[in-house]
Design goal:
2 copies of one chain form a homodimer.
Chain A (H helix, E strand, L loop, with lengths): L1 H12 L3 E5 L6 H12 L5 E5 L5 E2 L2 E2 L13 E4 L3 H13 L4 E4 L9 H16 L3 E3 L5 E4 L4 E4 L10 E8 L2 H13 L4 E6 L8 H10 L5 E6 L5 H14 L3 E5 L4 H11 L6 H10 L3 E2 L3 H12 L9 E5 L2 H14 L8 H8 L14 E2 L1 H6 L1 H10 L5 E6 L8 H15 L4 E5 L14 H7 L4 E2 L2 H20 L12 H12 L3 E2 L2 H10 L7 E4 L2 H11 L3 E6 L12 E5 L2 H18 L7 E6 L5 E10 L3 E8 L2 H4 L4 E4 L5 H9 L4 H5 L9 H18 L3 E11 L6 E3 L2 E5 L4
Parallel strand pairs in A: 1-2, 1-5, 5-6, 6-7, 10-11, 10-12, 12-13, 13-14, 15-16, 15-17, 17-18, 18-19
Antiparallel strand pairs in A: 3-4, 8-9, 8-11, 20-30, 21-24, 22-23, 22-24, 25-26, 25-28, 26-27, 28-29, 28-30
Chain lengths: 719, 719
């Protein structure tokens, strides 16, 4: 199906001949599609289809699809919804293999629409016909000027380039194509996918990742229809080293409601998406404004080699503001020192020592000799990117005009990226034809920004992405070890169990996959309890074992820090009495005798099933971090060592593991290993593992490992 | 001094006659100031001063200030730095009372500059001459067209209005005046304050708050020279109900370095500023872009009466994105229901039930009948503000042209604010003279935005500000109760103490101000300890009392949960032994016998001295909340009940007080009272109280109060 999807997308984006079914001067799309194909001089054969016309807008028209003298690569369908199925049938009979259905009024509209869409899907699937839409706004191959949507005032002249844009919203495809144009971003394709009854956003993203003419893929997403497919797309992007920039709805519940009422997509658990985005270096942007400002920095061919940024500013005030934001966003501003400083101080026209900090406040005078200021900085390895901050009108005379050509020149010849943040008047209203320096830079491909926070966040995203690709190794793909022995052990456990496992069996199960657990045993008599305790060594903890009592603390089913046999006797009896009191009908399997662990930092690990992604691994620090701050990270298996490290470091409470409140650094290495083992376990057990919680895992100080103190697994009955 | 500052600002902003000292065709400012005053037809007398000229740019010039035939209201000084002091002397001798010193090269430049500036300050102070600058870029009274700076291409036509803008950066004053113009914001004054050797940003803000022609005050601040003055300004803004919007540097350490290297201001502790901003409803914006987008919503004369927003969108995709962001930012989107829904459903041209959620996706068709869609929504009290989201080119034909006049009309006549978020192409390049719908709305004063997050954050800020002013009562100014008895008690405690007080005395001190503490007493013998314990009732806690041992736990100087006399005996001896071992030379005053408190949520309260604001009150939840997340709130006394409530609610851990992990809701009312008592205490003891920590205060469940379990106060020796 995938390769056929790719072929279909190829036909849809590069049709050599198109049948426009429902062409008509009288309707918006019926007229528009023909108009745009004509206007941009579509080089292939164009066949308007209309039962009542022999000619439309000067082009020979056909009464039906079947009357077309050749097999068109693509049908664009604009007929009323009730005629769509029949039209499709005619297309299939004529040998047409792909279509764009623009017609709306399907799943998104009402029950009848859903019924019609289901019919269409069934028919198309049966006949291997592929569809983009329905309820979409068409698409365009900007590279080849094949425009199959209404660009209207956006596109009388196309801005060609290598940025692909896919949108689940037709209106936003058109609106954002205009925004991209405003920002000087050249596009390769723009695609709206509508209801995605067949081809979905990921099919187009995949095509673009493989397309040599597309170097960046951007998308507006309300919800992925097939998250598994999105995972493939994300992996492909990693391999191809092409950035994906996503504007994705679904951060909050409010958004989810609106999104699902719009396209009927189930927007998946957003935190899981964020985990996957981290894992695959996908850049998520905040809004429509940021999307193409972020794209600017990724479009620029040069990548920063390190993480130091140098800021040159024309205004001290703008410099201190920018530095402030850099601190907030986490951008490093190394000092100018040594030979670089000496060289700069030697320049005539530059100011005193004091102003050559970072930001370096070189004022207007310094900006005029940028060609002399920049080269020493280019030689200095500390600085991987130079940001020039200008604080004056972009339509100004004087300084602005003088420095813009220099910046363009330097940006072209320099090894390192040079970006510009320009705060000042932009409109040239009342100034005649005077061209804005901002626009001149943009036209020349120099990334230039007007909003400081967006600019700096984009730079940070670029640096993160570049660092990720530097550290991430293509070869480090994860292969699952042979886990037959683990599986056998789990089978053994499951012979006696089904569904929710008790604490001891849950621990045995994770132990089968190499995760360290407490020394322990289940006793069914006081005598046995004592003998287990002696084997383990005092102090021990006792816990009631019963599938019906999950809240062990609440039920009084726990006794901690038992120091000797006498204490054990009392505690053993008390626990059983309290447990029976708490739940009269509970089936009590015995009492767990467990070594007592007092030290260690408590973390939480788990495997849960995301409705969209299947198994996902969660990590967090125990207690209120998880409960109140939702301070957890997610990853989708397989999880590499690199992923596991990121997963641990990205939570806010990471500092706790590094040691605080008098505690030594925790054994982070053991957490990394356990996460990777959980990943193997999740992949090995697949659907059979419904859910697993290790809460808590006690992590001891560096070099001393970790142990699961409690665990709860829910399994299908057999594996 | 303040009233004289106000007079000086009056002379500076509204001069009837101006001496421009250093006027010259040959220098940027020497020429520019005259040029702009002339261009905008300054109505008063203009006296260029230049020792070598009788006429400059067609205006009679004077060889010296003294030669001017009248006493000018204002001198603008542009001479070289070495001549500035002499020039000032001449001004004073001529009776001129205020000047703007544009000349740079003072404190910000080098040691010599600092020396010169100090001389100027001393001379001006002695002679009651007031100065704006030096090292400033001038200023302009836009209302009266008195332009005393180089507006260059920004201002050949001024956009007059009621927004005042003060900037510590001259370059940003000019650059942002251009940005304001781009956003259609009318300005009353723009002021750059430079080195603030005399008049500072707060003097100008204060003037503008009292100026009937200014309704909003905006500012770019690197650091306040006089925070106390800023507090006055903030209080005045509250009384005048005029919004202050600040772009303030200093959020991060990086920014601080840059800021202090620039103007030499000490940027105060930023968290304290944030507390004060909250307390006084001051709006802090993120960057230069946001400053005037936020100003747009405050410039609009109508205020939302509640917190419900209705979103009308032309595109489902844009609607779901916006809803998502609303969830994130905390904007409420109530449903359309009942009569309002019925009325809308009755409209011809509107779509089905499903799309009338909130966001209501009314598409292009619905936008065309906005005049019918809006009125039912205006009648519905649930909605206090309507946001229209448009997702298409702003220079488009068709829909855009049709709806813009309707929106302008509705925004004028409606009771409730109507704002527009417009995502789409903005430049009209290649489209001839076609005017952008965006600009048309802007010109008509309808707040219109292109960046969704900025738009929604601005709306949220407006709603917060309006709510604050609704709840905040002018009359609720806080008067300090008579605290003579408290003070006497503290004097008693201080007779025996100085500097750091021990735990018991610290607690006695807060108890003197009405803050509840544990029942306790200091014993100097075992016998006494027993008798105190019996009075209090077991269980008790024992703690070593010694000024030299502040880490009581570490030193082993604590024993908890002592159940009877026997246990007390053992614990008493152990504590003393361990304490002596821990610190051989410690002076041990005795052992504190304290009632044992086990339950309650632990919070931290404190009074610290901010280097800029003096005493500030801190509140936070105990433990890692404070240590790791810095999850604390600050306020500057006096603290009203309203402030205290906000202070408690704004921390992230607030939920802990509402009850979680099986705990009941905490007695928040008692925290409110204690915060207010701390405020009284801080104001009453002033500088004498160096520092106070109540850590922890145990807050019991609702209705059961709170008790300080431990406290540490540092005092000056006497009060």
């Amino acid at each position: 199906m995938t390769s056929s999807a790719n072929q279909a997308v190829q036909s849809i984006l590069h049709p050599r001949s198109i049948a426009v079914i429902g062409a008509s001067e009288k309707t918006l799309y019926g007229r528009g599609i023909i108009e745009y194909l004509k206007y941009f001089k579509f080089g292939g054969n164009l066949f308007p289809v209309n039962p009542n016309r022999d000619e439309i807008m000067g082009i020979k028209a056909y009464r039906s699809v079947k009357a077309i003298p050749e097999i068109a690569d693509l049908a664009i369908i604009i007929v009323e919804r009730k005629y769509v199925l029949n039209t499709l049938k005619e297309c299939v009979e004529s040998g047409i293999k792909a279509s764009i259905i623009i017609t709306a009024g399907f799943r998104e509209a009402d029950v009848e629409g859903k019924r019609l869409e289901d019919q269409i899907v069934a028919f198309a699937r049966e006949n291997e016909h592929r569809i983009c839409g329905p309820n979409c706004a068409g698409l365009a191959n900007i590279q080849d000027s094949t425009v199959m949507c209404l660009l209207r005032e956006e596109g009388r002249e196309l801005t060609r380039g290598s940025v692909g844009f896919v949108s689940q919203s037709g209106a936003l495809m058109m609106a954002l194509a205009g925004v991209a144009r405003d920002r000087g971003i050249g596009l390769s394709y723009i695609v709206s996918t509508g209801n995605e009854c067949d081809l979905e956003v990921c099919d187009f993203m995949k095509y673009m990742l493989e397309d040599p003419g597309t170097s960046i893929v951007t998308a507006f997403i309300e919800g992925f229809k097939g998250p598994a497919k999105f995972k493939e797309v994300a992996d492909l992007a990693l391999l191809k080293k092409k950035p994906i920039l996503l504007l994705k709805v679904g951060k909050t519940e409010l958004g989810k409601t609106a999104a699902s009422s719009h396209t009927g997509h189930l927007t998946g658990s957003d935190v899981v998406y964020d985990g996957l985005f981290q894992q695959k270096a996908i850049i998520r942007v905040a809004d429509t404004y940021d999307l193409f400002d972020f794209t600017k920095v990724f479009s620029y061919p040069k990548r920063p080699k390190g993480d130091g940024v140098l800021i040159l500013t024309s205004s001290g005030g703008l410099g201190s503001l920018t530095a402030d934001l850099c601190g907030d966003i986490g951008i490093k501003l190394p000092k100018i020192e040594g030979a670089t400083l000496d060289e700069l101080l030697g320049l005539k026209g530059l100011l005193t020592f004091d102003s050559l900090g970072n930001p370096a406040d070189i004022r207007g005078q310094g900006m005029k000799i940028l060609d002399k200021v920049i080269p020493p900085l280019m030689k200095d390895d500390k600085f991987s990117l130079i940001l020039i901050c200008l604080g004056f009108s972009t339509v100004g005379t004087g300084v602005a005009q003088e420095i813009v050509p220099t910046i363009i020149d330097l940006a072209k010849t320099s090894e390192k990226p040079i970006f510009v943040l320009w705060v000042g008047r932009r409109s040239n209203q009342g100034l005649g034809d005077r061209e804005s320096g901002f626009d001149l830079l943009q036209k020349s491909g120099v990334p230039v920004f007007e909003k400081p926070t967006t600019c700096l966040r984009a730079i940070k995203a670029l640096m993160n992405w570049t660092r990720f690709h530097g550290e991430w190794k293509e070869g480090s793909t994860i292969s699952l070890p042979d886990l037959e022995i683990s599986r056998q052990k789990v089978r053994g456990i499951l012979e006696m169990n089904s569904g929710k496992l008790d604490e001891h069996d849950s621990k045995r199960m994770i132990a089968a996959y190499g995760i360290p657990i407490t020394r322990e045993g289940v006793a069914t008599s006081m005598k046995e309890a004592k003998s287990i305790a002696e084997e383990i060594g005092y102090p021990v903890a006792l816990k009631v074992v019963s599938e019906q009592i999950s809240h062990k603390t609440e039920s009084g089913g726990i006794a901690l820090n038992i120091l000797n046999g006498n204490e054990l006797e009392t505690a053993y009896q008390e626990i059983l009495e309290r447990a029976k009191k708490y739940n009269l009908t509970a089936n009590i399997k015995g009492v767990l005798v467990q070594e007592m662990i007092k030290d260690g930092t408590e973390v939480i690990l788990g495997i849960s099933r995301d409705p969209q992604f299947g198994p996902v691994i969660m990590f967090g620090i125990g207690g209120i971090f998880v409960e109140l701050f939702k301070d957890v990270s997610f990853r989708v298996p397989p999880i590499s060592r690199f992923d596991a490290i990121e997963m641990i470091q990205e939570i806010k409470g990471y500092q706790v593991l590094l040691g605080m409140r008098g505690k030594k650094k925790a054994d982070i290495e053991s957490i990394i290993e356990i996460i990777m083992k959980l990943s193997n376990m999740a992949l090995d057990l697949r659907d059979n593992l419904v859910e697993l919680d290790i809460n808590p895992l006690a992590v001891f100080e560096e070099g001393r490992g970790a142990k699961a103190l409690d665990a709860l697994a829910v399994m299908k009955s057999s594996i």
